[in-house]
Specification:
The protein is an alpha+beta fold. Helices cover about 25% and strands about 20% of the residues. It is globular.
Length: about 280
């Protein structure tokens, strides 16, 4: 005969046991809810971070851009992308130099002139020089030919200001490899985002080129180059090693978007047809 032992669940401790079971279930439910709340909080933080990033990106964009001439992710090589525009009358106000003064005007973009290694070397050179000082806001400018460097609200000559110590920053090799010239140090450029015409601003400019040393969207936001045409604004998105060049008259009125995040590095190289404004390659004093 098999014996079967049955417990009486209605014994004297049954009520206490039932209370403990209910309390355990309640604690488990509370723990589960707290865990869910923790995950929900993390999710909300992530969503807020994404929203902030999206807001920064959207606020860095101009709403009046009608066409993007060159996007950062594109590689424009070996042939440049060329856009023709009608020449302005600006050049009539200056002495003309046959074979040099613009007869046909336009703008162009290429990624096939400077390698990524050369652009990186130039960026390190710029970082070394600009680490010596910098403006209080807006654009910081370094002109290795004249020695002009932004310092606070003014410019100093790095060769005179730092003396022999400058040899610890730059070497002769830096100057032999690259021609770096930016006459922008002659005027105040902290508010770099205002529209301007290079021919009117500098006079001697006939052609302007820009070499970008950082990437739009990853190194900085904002900071796109904008051509302001009568029928709309057209932009070039900077890419490290990208060269943008254009005739310097009012047919290429332009500006730069405000940089909203990060650091934008670019080299301005101007070309003149007037021999009296020609300069030699920069060299250490």
């Amino acid at each position: 005969m098999a014996l079967l032992r049955l417990r009486n669940t209605k014994g004297p401790n049954a009520a206490e046991i039932e209370r403990k079971i209910k309390r355990g279930n309640a604690l488990r439910q509370g723990s589960s809810w707290r865990g869910s709340r923790g995950l929900l909080a993390l999710l909300l933080v992530a969503l807020c971070a994404c929203a902030v990033a999206a807001w920064l990106y959207l606020t860095s964009l101009d709403s009046d851009i009608t066409e993007t001439l060159a996007r950062r992710r594109e590689v424009i090589s070996p042939q440049p992308r060329v856009y023709s525009v009608q020449c302005s009358e600006d050049y009539e106000n200056y002495k003309r130099y046959p074979g040099c003064t613009p007869q046909k005007c336009g703008r162009a973009v290429t990624d096939g002139v400077v390698t990524s290694e050369e652009a990186e070397a130039l960026r390190r050179l710029a970082e070394r020089g600009l680490a010596l000082a910098g403006s209080e806001g807006g654009a910081s400018i370094l002109d290795l030919h004249s020695g002009a460097l932004s310092m606070g609200k003014q410019f100093v000559n790095i060769y005179r200001y730092f003396g022999d110590q400058i040899m610890d920053v730059f070497t002769e090799e830096d100057f032999k490899l690259y021609r770096i010239n930016s006459t922008a140090a002659k005027t105040q450029h902290d508010e770099y985002w205002h529209p301007h015409i290079d021919k009117e601003t500098y006079g001697s400019f006939d052609y302007t080129s820009l070499l970008y040393l950082s990437d739009y969207g990853s190194d900085f936001t904002g900071g796109r180059f904008v051509f302001m045409d009568q029928n709309g604004n057209r932009t070039v998105e900077p890419r490290s090693g990208r060269v943008s060049f254009f005739s310097s008259g009012s047919e290429n009125l332009h500006r730069v978007e405000k940089v909203t995040w990060g650091t934008r590095y670019a080299i301005t190289v101007s070309f003149t047809c007037n021999p009296s404004y020609a300069i030699s390659d920069p060299s250490l004093p």
